[in-house]
Each structure stands twice: as structure tokens, then as C-alpha cells.
Amino acid sequence: MFLFQKKVDPFVSTIHLPHSFKSDINKIVFFTENPDQARIAMENGAAVAGGAELVEKILADEITADFYLAEPDMVQKLLPLKNKLRKKFPKSKRGSVGMNIPKMLALFKSGHEYMVEDIYVNTQVATLDMPNEYILANIHAIVKDVASHKPAEFGSFIERAIVCSRSSEGLHIKIEELLPQEEEKA
């Protein structure tokens, strides 16, 4: 997708695609000092749950994960990990800091992460063996989520979209049909 001449601050988002194409489940580390919350995290699929004692293990590369989630009161204790984890560092803006542990883990265990940099979204949306309806539904979900990050001062946000596989040329798609409709002002 191409965000025409209107640069946005880079962001990362994780969403549930209507038709997942990944069979593996993401490995998640959940940070909490509360043993009950750690138990809930483990029951809901976290690979590792613990407190500040995990910081040294992560810095020593003894523990690695696809996503790192945390309770709000743990973020300050995780600051030594900021340079190590970089974009994986837990942030409330990204949805990786919160108190609703089952909901957070459900999203990050099987969610699809995409990144917007400058004027492009470059992400996988499907596999070539998927039915066209599934591919279109996944594209629609990503377009809808990207549009939800639109700054208030922007008019039209997504100008065009191009889909391609690694071995083929890009195909333009009619993005207007996929965009959320803005209500007209009277």
C-alpha cells in the first residue's frame, strides 16, 4: 500500500486476520510481579511469565520471544531492556501493555503484525493457494486497521494499493471499495 505524499509517524500494529495463513503460534514473554497474573498468563499461552528477574536472562539471550507483554506497573522495571528489545519493547500504544491478560495474549499469540514506515505498508496478507475471497478479506482487515491510525488533519489517507508476490509484478487494486466510508457533514 502507498500512503500518497502524506507521511505519517512510523507505527507497528497487530491484528487478527479473518483468514490466518500462519500455522505457528508466536512465543510470548509476559512481565508481572503478581504470581496470580503470571499463572493467568501461563494458562493463556505465554511461554514465560515473571517479573524483573527475567531482565537479566533476556539481556544474556537465555530467553527470546516474538512478543514481550507487560502489566503497566512493570514498564519502569523493564527500561534496561529498551535497547535490546527495541521495537519489541512493551508499549501501551501498541497494545502490549495492559491488564486484560487473556485478551492481550489472544491477540499476540496468533495476531499478524505489520509496520508502516514513511508512506508504505509492506506486509504479507495471504498465501497464493488461498481463495480470492480470503485474500480480499485479509487485505480489507489490514486497510481498515491502517485507516484507523489516520491523523485527524488528513483527508484521504490511503491513495492506492498494490499487491504482489515475490515472483510476480504488482497489481493495483481498487482501494476505494475497501476504505471505511466517512460520514458526510451536513
UniProtKB/TrEMBL annotation:
Its main location: mitochondrion. Keywords: Mitochondrion, Ribonucleoprotein, Ribosomal protein, Transit peptide. It comes from the Eukaryota. GO terms for cellular component: large ribosomal subunit; mitochondrial inner membrane. GO terms for molecular function: RNA binding; structural constituent of ribosome. InterPro entries: Ribosomal_uL1, Ribosomal_uL1-like, Ribosomal_uL1/biogenesis, Ribosomal_uL1_3-a/b-sand. It is found in: Mitochondrion. GO terms for biological process: translation. Belongs to the universal ribosomal protein uL1 family. This is Large ribosomal subunit protein uL1.
